[in-house]
Each structure stands twice: as structure tokens, then as C-alpha cells.
Amino acid sequence: MAGSGCLLYFSILSSLLLFSATITEASQCAISGLPFVRNISELPQDNHGRGGLSHITIAGSALHGMKEVEVWLQTFAPGSRTPIHRHSCEEVFVVLKGTGTLYLASSSHVKYPGTPQEFSIFPNSTFHIPVNDAHQIVNSNEREDLQMLAVISRPPVKVFIYDDWFVPHTAAKLKFPYWDEQCLQSPQKDEL
Ligand SMILES: *[C@@H]1O[C@H](CO)[C@@H](O)[C@H](O)[C@H]1NC(C)=O
Ligand SMILES: *[C@@H]1O[C@H](CO)[C@@H](O)[C@H](O)[C@H]1NC(C)=O
């Protein structure tokens, strides 16, 4: 008797857990809009398959129905980096802590990105990435995380990835969606 009561209790408990897990997943895709105030420490983070990355979509297109801009908080562990990539949207990022290197190739070279310029990333520095310029952010510091707040226009971002700086633009690989694919309803057609 006691045994079956326990089993009943267990199955109620597990269906409650399952129910709340479903709610949690659904509520991450609050496409009806952003809550007015949120605590960043409580937002979900994910590395989206990229080693050493912590990505938080603070305000997103797929996630929250943002139309014009998207805001990310990203932390790069020592030694980690973005791929070499470009996108046809504007990007501004603000460095909250850590140091590193930004590699930036002007899109004026028609065939491939070419040898990039190097810029030091330091705390409180800010950068804007010109539309379609191939770039890479590297945390070259062996001890410290690099953390930044990034803002992009025209979300969701469509990222073209290069294996190196001399891969032709036409051979760069489109990765879309890049983030928040669980909430993406209808992928927009690519415009580049
Ligand atoms: C924000 O969330 C963190 C982690 O849950 C918590 O420690 C902190 O107290 C929260 N801040 C406020 C003002 O509620
Ligand atoms: C960054 O800016 C803030 C605000 O002006 C300042 O308090 C802080 O010391 C700065 N940090 C560095 C490393 O310059």
C-alpha cells in the first residue's frame, strides 16, 4: 500500500517537473515582447557549440520579437575566438572586461577578405564593425575572460564563415540561424 502511494506521488511529481520544463522552454521564446525589467544573471546562457563561449541574448529577434536591433552579452574564455565571419548588418560592441584582439579586413577587396588589420581590445573600448567587413574577435589573454555587449542591426543575423582570410567571399559558408534557433518561427530569406 505504502509502495503504490509512493509510486503515485512519484509520477505526479515527475509530470509536474515535465510540465514546468515545458513552460520554461516556451517562456524563453517570449515573442510577444520583452518583459520591462529583467535580471541578466537569470537569463539563459549557451555556448551554441562554440568552445569557450557564453552567449546570452539580452534582446533578440527570434527570442523576443525585436524588429530593428538585437543585443548580446558574450564572454570568451581565455584563448577562445569567433570564427572569421561577415554579416550584412551593423555591429557595435562595448568591452566590459578583459583584453584581446580584433582582426578586421575591409570589404573593399572584392575577391576575399585578405590580410586583416589588428586592433587591441581593452576594457571600456568600443568598436563598430562596418557592414560586410570580415572580422574575428580573439581572447588572446591566457588568464582572463573577455566580456562584451554587442548590438547588431537587422536581426536575426546571417553569418558567413571563412576558414581563413583568403577564402573567396563566394565560398564563405552561411550559418543561419546562428542563435536562438529554438524560437525561430519563419526564417527570413537571405538578402546578400
Ligand atoms: C539577480 O539574479 C542573481 C542570480 O539569481 C541574484 O543573485 C541577484 O540577487 C538578483 N538581483 C536582484 C536585484 O534581484
Ligand atoms: C571603465 O569605465 C568605468 C566608468 O567610467 C570606470 O569606472 C572604470 O574604471 C573603467 N575601467 C577601466 C579598466 O578603464
Automatic annotation (TrEMBL):
GO cellular component: endoplasmic reticulum lumen
Residues carrying a glycan: 124
Record's signal peptide: 1-26
Keyword set, alphabetical order: Auxin signaling pathway, Disulfide bond, Endoplasmic reticulum, Glycoprotein, Metal-binding, Receptor, Signal, Zinc
Protein name from the UniProt record: Uncharacterized protein
Pfam families noted in UniProt: Auxin_BP
Subcellular location: Endoplasmic reticulum lumen
SUPFAM superfamilies in UniProt: RmlC-like cupins (SSF51182)
Listed GO biological process terms: auxin-activated signaling pathway; cytokinesis by cell plate formation; positive regulation of cell division; positive regulation of cell size; positive regulation of DNA endoreduplication; unidimensional cell growth
Molecular function GO labels: auxin binding; metal ion binding
Disulfide bridges in this chain: 29-183
Annotated InterPro entries: Auxin-bd (IPR000526), RmlC-like_jellyroll (IPR014710), RmlC_Cupin_sf (IPR011051)
Organism the protein comes from: Ficus carica (Common fig)
Keyword Protein biosynthesis attached: no
PANTHER family, sorted: AUXIN-BINDING PROTEIN 1
Residues that coordinate or bind Zn(2+): 85, 87, 91, 135
Main localization of the protein described in the UniProt heading: endoplasmic reticulum
Lineage: superkingdom: Eukaryota
